[in-house]
Amino acid sequence: MTAYDAQTALNAIHHRQEQTFDAYMRHAASRPYVIVSALGLFAVCSSFDLPSPWNTAAVLVGNGLTLGGLFVHQRRAPVRRKTVGPEALFYAARGVALLVLFWAVAIGAHFLGLPARHTLAAAVTAVAIVVASYALRPVVESFVRGNGQR
User: Which domain holds residue 117?
Assistant: First the structure.
């Protein structure tokens, strides 16, 4: 094997790694899955404002949307990889931040005397999920790329 052949093989490996990375990121932030998860979260969180038989139905529908969307998302993934270290901490911090946002809006709406405060908080949180998924994509890419090069 010549030096040229070795470099060509190495370049092909790097090219395939980039293709794999791009496919993973394209699938991870695909619009339908983000919208389904936001709708599921909205249904579950807004159920606090509904009367007794309807709140159970809303929780079931919301959990069905979220879990069904997660199942389909994982089954259709063209590339699979494990979430490790700082990336997992980032996802956990993002989840805690969304939970804090939900309760901050709900408590603020309560103090302002607004009706259906949980529904309002659920709507704000669902919109925040969609916005955060696009705004934080470069951060997720840096985590994924950093973990892939170790």
Answer: 3-148
